[in-house]
Design goal:
The protein has about 325 residues and is of the alpha+beta class. The chain has 3 domains: about 120 residues, Trna Endonuclease, Chain: A, domain 1, CATH 3.40.1350; about 80 residues, Winged helix-like DNA-binding domain superfamily/Winged helix DNA-binding domain (Arc Repressor Mutant, subunit A, Orthogonal Bundle), CATH 1.10.10.10; about 110 residues, no CATH class. The chain is built from 12 helices and 15 strands. The chain has a 7-stranded mixed β-sheet, with helices on both faces. Helix 5 packs across helix 7 and helix 9 crosses helix 12. The longest helix is centred in the N-terminal third of the chain and has 18 residues.
Length: about 325
Amino acid sequence: MREMAEMDISFERYLKETLDIYLRPKKWKEAEKLPFFLRNLYAFFEVPILGTHCLAMVAKDEAEHTPATIRKHILQVQKKWSHEVIYVRQKVTAYNRKRLIEQKVPFVIPGNQMYLPFLGIDLREHFKKIRATDSPWSPSTQVVVLYALRHDGEPRFTPKNLANRLGYTAMTMTRALDELEGAGLGQIFMEGRERVLRFDRNKKELWGNALERLRSPVKKRMWVKYSLNKPLGMKAGLSALAYYSTLAEPANPVFALEGKKWKGIKTDKNLRVLDIPEPYACMLEIWSYPPELFAKSGVVDRFSLYLSMPANDDERVEAALEEMMEQVAW
């Protein structure tokens, strides 16, 4: 009960500091009519925000549910409450925070972030220092971050060694380093005539802080049928997620190809692009960078896969994504 009281105070204080609003939350009496499991998971308070009737759904337990599950909980609450519902929790992982935004779930993380789309409010204090612009990074900059996340040696990177390892020009890698330094994610210093980038965070912090600027590598998706009995590219999408989790394999496999490779095979007589899926067809994703760069055993890497997966109403898919990210050895 003491922790709940502290959370209520932090919620009120955060809205006062950010929006200059004095809240007078009152316990929602109708909560007694909700299913027991919801009352066990959350405390409910009526809070008017800028003239809008809102219900704060404050998480009680330490276990963090998937965004899809939270969305379902909100829909159940709205059977008894006809106005806006705001999810309130003291801490949310970076990847779940991103999924909440993708699913348009209003939430407040006191002292960290507020996302209230029905009021047009999206305050991200946690990311204020690293967001020089709202635009995402170029694919080459994203590739550097993904390489750093998978790199086991000393976190010291130069345009030349990055170009050699990742298949870009040294000039492109120089621009990538500039973007990363401008975002506050790394420090650049000179060793002789060579520019060197060092990340001043551990890998988990790097991923969390970079997440807001990373984007899906998928440029296009299409159904295709390939008469030759071999994979079209790296396993991706639900096929890759099934590899990394207990999710069942999809009926139609999913593969990923870089755009350049797609241009090279799209006129292949053994390949046919479909308007709708057919038996033995596959989903082909066209990526902005080579999926094989960080793939292992013919499967795209976890980080790229996570970024490539759109918000999904299927709780099993969201749970599989969470399971996959929990397995990352930071």
